[in-house]
Amino acid sequence: MKEGHPSLVPEVTIGGKPLKIDDFIAVARYHAKVCLSPEVIPKIRLCRTVVDTLVDNREVAYGITTGFGALRDILIPPEETATLQMNLIRSHAAGTGKPFSYEVVRGALLLRANTLAMGNSGVRIEIIEALLQLLNLGIYPYVPEKGSLGASGDLAPLSHLALVLMGDKEGRFLPKDHGIHSPSYKDFLPSTKEELEKHGFQPLSLKAKEGLALNNGTQFITALGAFLVWDGTILLESAKTAFAMSMEANKSVLDCLNPNLYHLRPQKYHGIISQEIYQAIHESPILSHPLNFAYLQKGQTTLEQILSWKEEEVEEEVFSEIHLLLKKWKDFIEKASQKEIPSTLDYDARRNLFEEDIHNLQSIISRIQISLWGKNSLFHHKIGNALNLVLQDLSQALPLYRPVQDDYSFRCAIQVLAALQTALQHVREIIEIELNSVTDNPILFPPKWQEFIHQEQEYSGFLKSHPDLLKSAVVSGGNFHGIPLGIPLDYLSIALSEIASIAERRIAHFLDTSVNKGLPSFLSKNPGLESGFMIPQYTAAAVVSENKVLSHPASVDSIPTSANREDYVSMATFGARKALEILHNCQYVIALEILSAAQALEFRKPLLPSSFTQRVLRHMESKGWHFISGDPPLEREVARILESLKKEELVFQKFLNPKKEL
User: Fold this and answer.
1) Same domain flag for 519 and 645
2) In this predicted structure, what is the pLDDT of residue 3?
3) Start-to-end C-alpha separation, the chain
4) DSSP state of 447
5) How far apart are CA 233 and CA 226, in angstroms?
6) Closest CA to 54 of 440, 455, 472
7) Whose C-alpha in 54, 149, 252, 312 is 20 to 30 A from the C-alpha of 208?
8) Are strands 11-14 and 33-36 parallel, antiparallel or unpaired?
9) Mean pLDDT, to the nearest integer, of 75-82?
10) Model confidence band, residue 170 (pLDDT cutoffs 50, 70, 90)
11) How far apart are CA 218 and CA 430, in angstroms?
C-alpha cells in the first residue's frame, strides 16, 4: 500500500491546517485518532463570549434568543435559552430509515467538530472536545439516513447525533467493538448518561446557541461526498484495469489510444488515460499476433467432437484423415504461438508468415470433404457440416485485412473514463472546500478578537460597551444550503452511471458470438449444456438500468417547509445517498467485467496477455479465481473480485508499476 495512505495515519489534527479527503478517510474509515489544535482555542472561547454577551444583554439574535424557522420572531428569555437548544435537538431528531453506516457517522462527527473549531459558531470548547471524544472512544451514534432536505443543512441526522452527545435517553448508540454487522435500531443502546459513562463518555448539557451549532450544517452531505470521491477514484482506477483487460480479451485495435487523436481534442485526461492504457497493453502478444487463436481453439474442439462421433457406417479412412488433421492443427497452434514476430512488420507481412500453414490445413479439410461426396447417410452429412464450420473458423483465424476499428464500447471508452475523472476532480475540489467551511446559521464574526486573546472577561466588557459591534457580530445567511454540493453530486452520479453502462456493454460483447471474435457463447466451455456468464450479464443490466433511474437529479426538486419560511431546499442529502448506491452498483459491474475478461482470455490461449494483465490474473488467482467451467453459482466468484476492488487491490497503477500504487 502506498506510503502516506490514510490507513497508515495514526492521528489527525483539526483546526491547524485544512482537512483533505485523505485526512477524512483516515479518521472515518481507518479510525485515526483526532485532536484539536491549541492554536484555535482562543478564538473559539472569544466567539463563545459573544454568545454569552448577547444573552446577557437580551439582544435579538436568531436561534440564540429567538425561536427557529417560522418561529423566528418569538423572543426567548435568557433563563430559557438552554432549554431552547435542548428542545431544538429533541424535536428535530425526526429521521427515518435504516441507520447510516459507522464510517459515515464518524465522518459527520469529524466534520462537525472541524466546523465548530473554526471559531465562528459560538460553542464552548467542551462541545468540540465531546465530539472528538465520541470519535476517539469509537462510539457509534444511531442516525437514520432519511429525513434531511439538505437545508437548513442536515437538521434531522445531526440532531440524532447530538442526542447522544447530550446523553438524552431517546438517543441510541453502540460502543466500540460491538461486533454487530449492519445493526438495526433495536441493536443500539439508549444513550442515557449512565450507559454512556460505562463506555467512558461524559455527556454534556447544551447552552445558548449550541444546539443550533450542532444540527445546522452540511456534514452528512459532505461526508457522503468525501466517500464518493475516494471510492469513486478507486472505482475509476479499477475500471481502467478492467478496460485494459477487456481490450486484450477482445483482441482490440489500438488506434483509439493514438495520442494524435487527443492532440486534436485536448479535453482533460483523455491523452493521459489513453497513454496509460497503451503503456499497459501495447506489447500484448494477443494484440500483436495476426492469428486469432480463439477461432483455432473452436476448430480444434469441433474436430475432437467429430472423432467422438465415430460410427461403423463411416469409413475408417475418413477418421484417420481427421486424426491427421487434428494432429497437424495442434502442431500448427503450438508452432504459431511460439513464433517470434518482429514488431517492425506490418499486418500483411505478419499475416504472410502463417498463410501457407493455413492453406495446407484448408487443403486437408477439402480433401476430406471430397471423400464424403456422394455419401448419403445422415452421419456423412453431419461430418461434412461440422467440417464446414472448421473451415470457417480457419478462415476467420487469419483475417485477410487488418481490423480497422472496434465497437463504441471499446473505441470510446477513453472518453467515458476521462469524463468520470474530470467529474471526480471537480467534485473533489468542492468537497475539500466544504470539509473546511462554516455551514451553520447564524454565523458569528467576533469583532477585534485578535486583540483579546486569553482575555474573555475583558472582551465581554468591550462588547457590552460597543453594542453596535456586538449586534453586527451575528450574521444570518444561507451557508447551510446544500445546493453547492447537490448539483455536483448529481453530476457525479451521471458520470458514475456511464462507467457501468459502457462496461456492461463490453461484458455483453464477450458473450455474443456475432461480435466477440471467436469466443464461445456466453464464455462457456460447453455452450448449451452450460449457460456460462449469461445470467451475471442480466444482473449487470439490471443494476445499470437501476442506475439510470437513480441518476435523475435530486437537486432539481424542492418542497417548501417551515410554513414557507424555508421555501427552497436542496435535497442534496438524498442526492448523495443515491450517488453512493450508484457507486455500489458500478463496483459490481466493474468486478464482473474483470471476471468476464479473465474468462475470455482463457480462450485466447496459448498466447499470454501483457505482463500488466498477467499481474492482474496472478492477483486474482491468489484470491481464489480460476477458469470457470461446469456452471457453478457465480455470485461468489463475482463477490471475490468485488471485495478485492473495494480493498483497493485492483487499482490500475498497482499493476502498471508494481512498486507504485494509487
Assistant:
1) yes
2) 65
3) 8
4) T
5) 11
6) 472
7) 149
8) parallel
9) 89
10) very high
11) 13
On whether both 160 and 302 belong to a single domain, the answer is: no
Cell 473452436 found at: 298
Q: Quick one: three-class SS letters along 599-623?
A: HHHHCCCCCCCCHHHHHHHHHHHHC
Mean pLDDT rounded to a whole number for the chain:
94
Element (H, E) at 12: strand 11-14
- Are 207 and 241 in the same domain? no
What is the SS3 string spanning 78-140?
HHHHHHHHHHHHHHHCCCEEEECCHHHHHHHHHHHHHHHCCCCCCCCHHHHHHHHHHHHCCCE
The least confident of 73-82, 113-122, 422-431 is 73-82
pLDDT digits (tens, 9 = 90+) for 174-221: 999 888 889 999 999 999 999 999 999 999 999 999 999 999 999 999
Tell me which residue of 293, 366, 301 sits closest to 335, measured CA to CA: 293
Residue 251 sits in a domain whose CATH number is 1.20.200.10
Q: Hey, what's the cell of 336?
A: 504459431
Residues in the chain: 662
In a domain, 313, yes or no: yes
DSSP H helices, 311-411, are: 316-338, 347-372, 378-397, 408-411
Same-domain status, 160 and 118:
yes
For residue 578, the enclosing domain spans 229-288+407-423+485-554+565-656
pLDDT at 652 over 80: yes
The number of angstroms, rounded, from the C-alpha of 390 to the middle of its chain's C-alpha atoms is 44
pLDDT (tens digit per residue) in 547-578: 999 999 999 998 888 888 878 899 999 999 99
What is the pLDDT, as a whole number, of residue 505?
Answer: 98
Tell me the three state secondary structure of residue 153. Answer: strand
Assess if residue 638 is contained within a domain: yes
Cell numbers found for residue 243: 478496460
Burial of 138 (0-12, 13-18, 19+ CB in 10 A): middle
Beta bridge partners of 530: 527
- What pLDDT was estimated at residue 662? 39
Asked whether residue 318 is domain-assigned, the answer is yes
- Helices first, then strands: H and E counts in the chain: 26, 9
Q: Specify whether 644 is located in the same domain as 506.
A: yes
Domain count, the chain: 3
Do 46 and 194 lie in a common domain?
Answer: yes
The angle subtended at Cα 20 by Cα 16 and Cα 26, nearest 5°, is: 95
pLDDT exceeds cutoff 80 at 158: yes
3-class secondary structure, 40 = helix
User: Does residue 197 lie in a domain region?
Assistant: yes
Interval 425-435 mean pLDDT: 98
- Contacts of residue 576, defined as CB under 8 A and 6 or more positions apart, other chains included, come to 220, 221, 224, 225, 228, 485, 486, 489
- Regarding whether 313 and 249 lie in a shared domain, the answer is no
8-11's contacts with Cβ under 8 Å and 24+ in sequence apart are: 11/35
Determine contact, residues 569/154, Cβ cutoff 8 Å. Answer: no
Predicted TM-score (pTM) of this structure: 0.95
pLDDT at 661 over 50: no
Question: What's the Cα-to-Cα distance from 331 to each of 58, 77, 259, 354, 387, rounded to whole Å?
Answer: 97, 96, 39, 13, 19
Q: Which residue has better confidence, 292 or 177?
A: 292
| 166 and 212 housed in the same domain | yes
